[in-house]
């Protein structure tokens, strides 16, 4: 069944989404891509879900588009599918933590870059093979990757198609940290719970202005932040009790 292509586990505001074609290294068939879009549409409407962890089953996060479909075994319409994954993930408007458990190749690399930040296991490997398979990136890799790791490093990866290991990805700033494979989901879940513990409206606004500023100039980003900050001050009374609790907890920790 199509539901089995993507597994979703929900607990305490955190939804863990697992791409589930392990025998195919989670290759992005049209059916899988459409199911991912459906799941993210559902999570966007789920008020109980505040943070999403995205990972893959087996040895891969995802190795990208299913080359059998690209090779002509299906029509172009079937191979492309009906929904742009970049649009589906962006429409979530909730933090996405990428738990990169293995290969993140080409389209899989692009999906990783759609996440708000990445935690990787030592088995994680990234590669952009668009130039090798004759496909121009269409989900944002050519624009997101240079902004994260620098234009020269991005060109090295995209023009050679070579692999990038987890530790180098971390040193280049692509990955926040590398943790043992058996601690990957545990680490991501702990971070997700930390996010859930923050004030939701403020958190959402911070995420919004960070993303908007990242796609714009520094000057425009600073203006955006100032406008958002001023508008948000009207909520000060709503969060005053929360601030008092945080201050009390800080004093308790300092005295212990």
Folded structure, characterized:
Helix content is 52%, strand content 16%. The chain folds into 2 domains: 195 residues, Alpha-Beta Complex (2-enoyl-CoA Hydratase, Chain A, domain 1), CATH 3.90.226; 56 residues. The longest helix has 20 residues. The protein is built from 13 helices and 10 strands. The chain has a 6-stranded mixed β-sheet with strand order 1-2-3-5-7-10, sandwiched between helices. Strands 4-6-8-9 form a 4-stranded mixed β-sheet.
- Tell me the strand percentage band: 15-25%
CATH level 3 topology of the largest domain: 2-enoyl-CoA Hydratase, Chain A, domain 1
Order of helices and strands: EEHEEHHHEEHEEHHHEHEHHHH
Total count of helical runs of at least 4 residues: 13
**In CATH, what is the homologous superfamily of the largest domain?**
2-enoyl-CoA Hydratase, Chain A, domain 1
Based on CA atoms alone, the radius of gyration comes out at 19 Å
Measured as a percent range, the helix fraction is 40-55%
Strand order of the largest sheet: 1-2-3-5-7-10
Question: How many domains, in number, for the residues?
Answer: 2
**CATH architecture identity of the largest domain:** Alpha-Beta Complex
Major beta sheet, specifics? 6 strands, mixed
Global mean pLDDT: 87
N-C termini distance = 54 Å
β-strand number: 10
Low-pLDDT parts are: 72-80
CATH top level label of the largest domain: Alpha Beta
Which structural class do the helices and strands define?
Answer: alpha/beta
Task: Give the overall form.
Answer: globular
């Amino acid at each position: 069944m199509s539901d089995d292509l993507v597994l979703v586990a929900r607990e305490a505001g955190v939804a863990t989404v697992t791409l589930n074609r392990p025998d195919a290294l989670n290759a992005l068939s049209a059916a899988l891509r459409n199911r991912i879009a459906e799941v993210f549409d559902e999570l966007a409407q789920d008020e109980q879900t505040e943070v999403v962890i995205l990972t893959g089953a087996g040895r891969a996060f995802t190795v990208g588009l299913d080359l059998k479909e690209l090779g002509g075994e299906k029509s172009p319409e079937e191979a492309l599918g009906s929904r742009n994954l970049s649009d589906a993930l962006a429409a979530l408007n909730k933090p996405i933590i990428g738990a990169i458990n293995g290969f993140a190749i080409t389209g899989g690399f692009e999906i990783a870059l759609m996440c708000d930040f990445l935690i990787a296991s030592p088995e994680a490997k990234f590669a952009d093979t668009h130039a090798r398979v004759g496909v121009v990136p269409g989900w944002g890799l050519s624009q997101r990757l240079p902004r994260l790791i620098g234009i020269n490093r991005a060109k090295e990866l995209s023009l050679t198609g070579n692999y990038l290991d987890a530790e180098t990805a971390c040193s280049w700033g692509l990955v926040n940290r590398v943790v043992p494979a058996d601690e990957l989901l545990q680490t991501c879940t702990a971070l997700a719970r930390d996010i859930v513990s923050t004030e939701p409206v403020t958190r959402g606004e911070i995420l919004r202005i960070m993303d908007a500023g990242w796609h714009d100039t520094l000057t425009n980003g600073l203006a955006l932040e100032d406008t958002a900050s001023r508008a948000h001050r009207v909520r000060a009374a709503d969060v005053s009790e929360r601030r008092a609790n945080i201050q009390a907890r800080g004093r308790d920790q300092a005295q212990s």
